[in-house]
Amino acid sequence: MNLNNPPSWVIVTVLVVALIVVIGLVSREMRRRQSARLQRRFGPEYARTVTQRGDRSKAEAELLAREKRVEKLKLMPLSPEDQARFSEAWRTLQTRFVDNPRGVVVDADRLVRDLMTKRGYPMGDFEHRAADISVDHPKVVDAYRSARAIAARDERGEASTEELRKAVVYYRTLFDDLLEVPQRTEPSPANNEVVHS
Questions:
Q1: Cα–Cα dist 60/45, whole Å
Q2: Burial 58-67 (b: 16+ CB within 10 A, else e)
Q3: Which of 7, 29, 59, 177 has the CA that lies 20 to 30 A from 99?
């Protein structure tokens, strides 16, 4: 046996091990890049989904599934006429708040759903709608969830007028984003300033 010429099975084994290591490194890098892309695209929604699922891989699989589902939707921009009509509907709704805060919150929810329908979003249950919105509107989906939570408390008679005001502000945040008009401010659940038009 010549020690300078290792048997061919040793060479093959070393090559196979090297190939496995390279595949593992490439795979890890691809997962890292995918994670970074999802974090950039979904922002706070990424962290929320990871926390909710308790596992990064499961959360990323869900976010990827959302992307694929929304890619299949026929989402459409609004015509200038529709933008004007929805904007006027919101202005009218907002002027009624002082006289009927509860009714305005119900109407704001309905108007946001009408706008989503007009843009092409399906109207499944709330969590499904929020998940769909999170793909293209990740910065405002948290405001939508906050608005809906206040509306649910209001349905049970548990929301104060101040909470109802916040709900309208949150709905307006999503409304403006869906309407694709320049936003004056970007209120979030942490920033409860009223937006005056």
A1: 11
A2: ebbeebeebe
A3: 177
